[in-house]
Amino acid sequence: MKKLHKLRQMGRGWAMCRVGLALGFMAGGISVAGAGERPNVLLLMVDDLNDWVGCMGGHPNAKTPHMDSLAAEGMLFMNAHCQAPLCGPSRASMMSGLLPTTTGVYGQVSDKHLRRGGKAIREAVFLPDYFEQHGYKSVGAGKLFHNGDGNGVFDVYGPKYSFGPKPKQRMVYDPSTVTDLGSTLTDWGAYPDSDEKMSDYRVAAFGVEQLGKEHEKPFFMALGFARPHVPWHVPQSWFDHHPVGEIVLPHYKRDDYEDVSELARLVNTMPAMPTVEWLEKHGQWKEMLQAYLASTTFVDAQIGKVLEALRASAYAENTIVVLMSDHGYHLGEKNRVAKQSLWERSTKVPLIISVPGEKGGRKCGAAVGLIDLYPTLVELSGLPGREELEGVSLCPMLDDPERVWKRGVITSYGPEHHSVRTARYRYTSYGSGKAREFFDHKVDPNEWENQVDVPEQAARIVELERMLPKGAAEGHPIMKMPVSLYELKQRGKLGGER
């Protein structure tokens, strides 16, 4: 595409200009202040958002007009996946351009301890830093790494994120009444009484303010929104968008685990999280879904403020916009209300890339990963490529979404459990091959039929096995894994349920 090519050429031209400046002369009279031709980058990160977005058709009750409008301006990747089904490691992977099996960051690591792992994560050049090294100003706010910006990566960091405000007492779900095996922030209900009390409101306001400023350098701006992360509390007005009587239940199969191994059940069972049985017993399934949908519509409105500010700004014609989630979320499917699985509902994420001047409203069905964002933004901005990166640029897909794309996307949950997703298939190995799953998404989009023992699939399974990581780095020394039954069994701490 001509505009895409032009953006790359602009970036390369600026790189040549920097060389000229370093040698003490001006290339063609171009100065630093005149480098506005380089594209800016606006990265919008949403926490725990699955494909319940209007343009993705993931749920009929989804109301996300602003995300939909961005998709209408850019490319929507319909088959994008995270590299870890958990906030911290997913974000560390995307920001470093390295797989969890390379960095050892499989679980939650505080930002201030992130660099205290193995060599790969110690020496990683995070995405904002790389742009800074090439003349960009980095600006951030909200939840970007696991704790926001505890690493001090951004030149300017605005409001922090919060999962609150929360009422003094839980409104619906209290995990202490369900189990003594872990805890969760999971709860739902209309709270507080105004949008202004939500951290996402402040993050959006900061983004609007920054887009109204004059920036001497091109900017790399990242805004991290907390909702729809639990607890699903937003003001009542957002619940009103989703009357509970109109809520449609997601796909659910009561005997779904019959073809799943015991090891897979242990890995995917989060004892502190709600199950469909609990939701049905307490008459809360639709109410829970309403709260998730309300939280998503609320965050969509905050994103809308930022997008409108960009469109009204001096940067509208020269800013690449990316919208992504760090992982998906089960909302009853496979009897789970949680992330932290290697099934489709946890790994699949919304991903939109909008390049100024490019034709919008296009969709791509190729399997891509969040790890591919780093090299994609580097190429779009004309920066020198980095051989260390383990993703690949999606620019070929932006040029032609129909091109043949034979890569598989890897998602890891700890060092022993890995899944590979292609355009059609998913293959998962638990416990370094002790248990396996194979799903054909063309005929089984809900992953209800494990075909790993079907003879006709044997050749495909062998091909997918070859795509799995050949080794896995030792886990980060200061890391917490989610409280699954598998993790508790490994620690010898399995207890009883209430």
TrEMBL record:
One matching Pfam family: Sulfatase
Residues covered by the Sulfatase N-terminal domain: 39-382
Keyword entries, A-Z: Calcium, Hydrolase, Metal-binding, Signal
Cofactor(s) the record lists: Ca(2+)
PANTHER family the record matches: IDURONATE 2-SULFATASE
Family to which the UniProt record says this protein belongs: Belongs to the sulfatase family.
Protein name per UniProt: Sulfatase
Record organism: Rubritalea tangerina
